[in-house]
Design a protein that fits this description.
38% of the residues lie in helices and 17% in strands. It contains twelve helices and eleven strands. The chain has helices at 35-47, 63-72, 103-117, 136-148, 162-171, 192-199, 229-233, 241-259, 263-272, 287-295, 303-312, 325-328, and strands at 8-11, 14-17, 21-22, 52-54, 80-85, 87-90, 93-99, 122-127, 152-158, 174-180, 202-206. Strand 3 (21-22), helix 1 and strand 4 form a beta-alpha-beta unit. The longest helix is centred in the C-terminal third of the chain and has 19 residues, at 241-259.
C-alpha cells in the first residue's frame, strides 16, 4: 500500500478520516514499545490519510503524549489530535486508578498535556471517565472555558452513559463519545448510540478489534507476553474464556477467507459499517498492522455479510466481562 486518501466522516462539527489511530499501546499495556517504530507508524498513518490520532495523559504516565508530540512536531497541520484527562495514577502502584473531574483539575490537566504534546491547542479533548463525585456540568463547564480560551477546539466524553451525555451536551456541544465497541462489546447500542445520534454526536469506538483478539492472531494465553495487561487483567483473555472466544473467532476467520480479507479486517469493517458517524481508532505500534487496519476501510459488507458476521460472533456467546469488576464500575456513568 503506497499512499492514499481515506474518506472523511464527521464527529459533530469536526471532520476526520473514516478511521483513526489509537496510540496507547506504543507506550504501555501491550508489552515493550519501540519509539522509533511507533513514530514511523504514526508518520505512515498520516501518509495513508489517517488524520485522527488518539492519546491520553495516563498512557505511560504522560510518555505517550510526549511520543505523539515528537511524531507530529513537523506535521501538526495534518493531524486532528485527540487526548484525554481524568484518570489519576500512582507510579508506585501502576494498576491503581482514581478519577478527577473538578474544574481545578481540568485546568491543570490541559496545561500538562499541551506541554507534553508541544502544541498550543488540542483538537478534541475528552474526559476519560466520568467522576462520580463531581457533577458533569462542572466538568464540562470547565472544559468549555478551555474552548473559549483557545486551548481546546472540540469536547468529548469517554465511557459516559446516555443521560450523562445529554446533561453534558446541554452545557457545551459534545463532538464525540469514545467507548469500546466491537463485535464482542455491543452494550452501547441500547442507549448510548441512540442518544448520540439524537444529539448529533459522533462515535469513536476504541478496541474495535477486541484488544487484538478478533484478529485471530492469538491461539492461547501464552501467545501474550507475561507483562501484557490483557493476560494480567482482561477476563476474556483468561483461562477457560480464552478457548470459548477463540472458537468464535475461528468462525469469523472462515468468513474472512471466503471474502478474501483478513479476520481483523472483517471485524473492523463491521465496526466501520455501524454508520457514517462512527470513526474507529484501532491501536497498533507497527506499520504492518496499521496498513492492514486501514485496508478495512475499503471492505464493503452486504446485509448478508453483516448477518453472517453477527452469527459467527453472537453477543451472548462471548465469555467473560470486558473489564474487571473494579474497572467496570468506571464505565457508562
Amino acid at each position: 500500500m503506497s499512499g492514499s486518501t481515506l474518506p472523511v466522516r464527521r464527529l459533530g462539527a469536526l471532520e476526520v478520516s473514516a478511521q483513526g489511530l489509537g496510540c496507547m499501546g506504543m507506550s504501555e499495556f501491550y508489552g515493550e514499545g519501540d519509539d522509533s517504530e511507533s513514530i514511523a507508524t504514526i508518520h505512515r498513518a498520516l501518509d495513508l490519510g489517517v488524520t485522527l490520532l488518539d492519546t491520553a495523559d495516563m498512557y505511560g504516565f504522560g510518555a505517550n503524549e510526549e511520543l505523539v508530540g515528537r511524531a507530529i512536531a513537523d506535521r501538526r497541520d495534518q493531524v486532528v489530535l485527540a487526548t484525554k484527562f481524568g484518570f489519576v495514577r500512582d507510579k508506585d502502584d501502576p494498576a491503581k486508578r482514581g478519577v478527577r473531574g473538578d474544574a481545578a483539575y481540568v485546568r491543570e490537566a490541559v496545561e500538562n498535556s499541551l506541554r507534553r504534546l508541544g502544541i498550543d491547542h488540542i483538537d478534541l479533548y475528552y474526559q476519560h471517565r466520568v467522576d462520580p463525585d463531581v457533577p458533569i456540568e462542572e466538568t464540562v463547564g470547565a472544559m468549555a472555558e478551555l474552548v473559549r480560551d483557545g486551548k481546546v477546539r472540540h469536547l468529548g466524553l469517554s465511557e459516559a452513559g446516555a443521560e450523562t451525555i445529554r446533561r453534558a451536551h446541554a452545557v457545551h456541544p459534545i463532538s464525540a463519545v469514545q467507548t469500546e465497541w466491537s463485535l464482542w462489546s455491543r452494550d452501547i447500542e441500547d442507549a448510548v448510540v441512540p442518544a448520540c445520534r439524537e444529539l448529533g454526536i459522533g462515535l469513536v469506538p476504541y478496541s474495535p478489534l477486541g484488544r487484538g483478539f478478533l484478529t485471530g492472531r492469538f491461539k492461547s494465553e501464552t501467545d501474550l507476553r507475561a507483562d501484557d495487561f490483557r493476560r494480567q487483567t482482561q477476563p476474556r483473555f483468561a483461562d477457560g474464556n480464552f478457548e470459548k472466544n477463540a472458537a468464535m473467532v475461528e468462525s469469523l476467520r472462515a468468513l474472512a477467507e471466503a471474502k478474501g480479507v483478513t479476520t481483523g479486517q472483517l471485524a473492523l469493517a463491521w465496526v466501520q459499517a455501524r454508520g457514517d458517524d462512527v470513526v474507529p481508532i484501532p491501536g497498533t505500534k507497527r506499520r504492518t498492522y496499521l496498513e492492514e487496519n486501514v485496508g478495512a476501510v475499503a471492505v464493503e459488507l452486504s446485509e448478508e455479510d453483516l448477518a453472517a458476521i453477527e452469527t459467527a460472533v453472537p453477543l451472548d456467546g462471548v465469555a467473560g466481562a470486558r473489564y474487571s469488576d473494579a474497572a467496570m464500575k468506571l464505565v457508562s456513568r
